[in-house]
Amino acid sequence: MHKRSRRHGAPPRKSRRWLWLAGVSLTLSAAVAGGVLYFLNDLGITPRSLGPYIKRRSDGHNAVIEGIGQAASKVLLYVDRGDPPYRQAEWASSIGVQAGGSPDAGAANGQEVLVSTTPEMVRAIAAATPGQVITLLPGRYQVDQRVTVIKPGSADAPITVRARQPGSVQLMIDAGEGFNIQAPYWRFENLSLQGNCSKNTYCEHAFHVAGGAHHFAAVNNTIVDFDAHFKINGEKGRIPDHGLIASNTLRNNSIRLTTKPVTPVDLVAASHWVIRRNLISDFIKGDSDLISYGAFVKGGGGNNVLEQNIVICEHKLRGAPGQRIGLSLGGGGTGKQYCRDGRCLTEQTGSVLRSNLIAGCSDDGIYLNASAQSKLVHNTLVDTGGITVRFPESSADIEGNLVDGIIRSRDGGVLRLADNRHVSAARLYFGGHPQRALFRDPLALDFHWSTPAERRVAAGEPVPDLCGAVRPGQPRYGAFEDFAACLAKR
């Protein structure tokens, strides 16, 4: 009897069994992978947050597991963040310090007091009267102890400390604080302040605005190498409301090896501040929790506006462990004793983030923590974790934003999304960055359009343009119409 012949090309029975098992295995693997991806997408876990988590969990195990963890982390970070270049050159733009002065600068029409040495400056500040303009003559001033400001200006006659030309006066600060402002209506303009402590952790604040120092203004200053370039908080029952921080360049030249908060604008409890047209970069915390922010407002205040700022979390300093967040309403939370109402039922109420460009952050570009009635309007986020609204106390109207990443609610945060452009977490695991692709070379900080973002049918409310252009009734998504206007230095 002849054996039944196999069909032409059919594999042997044993091979068919292995092919069936392989098919089942691949199907199960795909199902598991799909389930994992669905889980990650549902929770809003991005590759840039999963990669470091896997690395941390694998650390301390045997070499094989550590190697797998490091490799997985590297792949996930590359998929999400790409390979941004290490930037050395300064970035000239119409945001930050302006060589010709800032549109927010005062007229300086009061009585002028000229000083040329640090002791003369200290004496002039101690004796100041409303309306005086204390002008520092060009040169370098060594400041080895805190300068305390206690004489008040007035609404119609603020006291101004300034250089006539930006960059002509350098204040070298070798103290925990440069200026401690306790009185209202003081302005600081066109100055360069450099932290110059033997260890960078010793230089904590360039300006500490506290207590009764309402209506403080800092305009067109360059401030480098501090933990918190501006620290604002209440003191002895008084809170310094109605401040202005405009057209300043805030950065650090090295990682801050400190356990203290690293946040160039650290505002607690105060309300009605405007933080506008600042260039904020390289605020990396290298000790303790490794978490830092470009700017936050928290502590139970409200009606603060952060607009037309450029925040580059990692510009010249890259690759360090830790979490860098761009802008935040609520920060990491506030101890009750520091809160405006002694309770902090919400960290912020009615505050606004609009027309900001935020880039190069290892964590969220925008993070809301217990912040109610918030507005996030026409911001552009590139190479960040996206936008997170966290905790039931948080509520946010989010409109017209261009987000190279996700927008998510976490732990009960309330989102009201209206006409944004963003992607899902799942898409990021496949290297999908449609918003990033709109720009010519965003990882090299070239935000000229490659393909211009589409226009909206209409904006819900008028919004400023990052670069100062007049926006049409049908604006483009994100912070600006054309980034070329931002590179026309004023």
List the helices and strands and how they pair.
Elements: H1 13-43, H2 47-58, H3 63-81, E1 112-115, H4 118-126, E2 133-136, E3 139-143, E4 147-149, E5 159-163, E6 169-173, E7 177-181, E8 186-189, E9 192-195, E10 205-210, E11 217-219, E12 222-224, E13 228-233, E14 244-246, E15 249-251, E16 265-268, E17 274-276, E18 279-281, E19 291-298, E20 301-302, E21 305-307, E22 310-312, E23 323-329, E24 348-349, E25 352-354, E26 357-359, E27 366-369, E28 371-372, E29 374-377, E30 380-382, E31 386-390, E32 395-399, E33 402-403, E34 406-410, E35 414-418, H5 425-428, E36 439-441, E37 446-449
Parallel strand pairs: 1-2, 2-5, 3-6, 4-7, 5-8, 6-9, 7-10, 8-11, 9-12, 10-13, 11-14, 12-15, 13-16, 14-17, 15-18, 16-19, 17-21, 18-22, 19-23, 20-24, 21-25, 22-26, 23-27, 24-28, 25-29, 26-30, 27-31, 29-32, 30-33, 31-34, 32-35
Antiparallel strand pairs: 36-37
Helix pairs in contact: 2-3
Summarize the structure.
With about 500 residues, the chain is of the alpha/beta class.
Task: Describe the protein in words.
- This protein has 490 residues and is of the alpha/beta class.
- The chain folds into two domains: 18-81, no CATH class; 112-487, Pectate Lyase C-like.
- The strands form five sheets. The chain has a twelve-stranded parallel β-sheet with strand order 1-2-5-8-11-14-17-21-25-29-32-35, covered by helices on one side. A ten-stranded parallel β-sheet has the order 3-6-9-12-15-18-22-26-30-33, with no helix packed on it. The protein has a ten-stranded parallel β-sheet with strand order 4-7-10-13-16-19-23-27-31-34.
- Helix 2 packs antiparallel against helix 3.
- The relative contact order is 0.09.
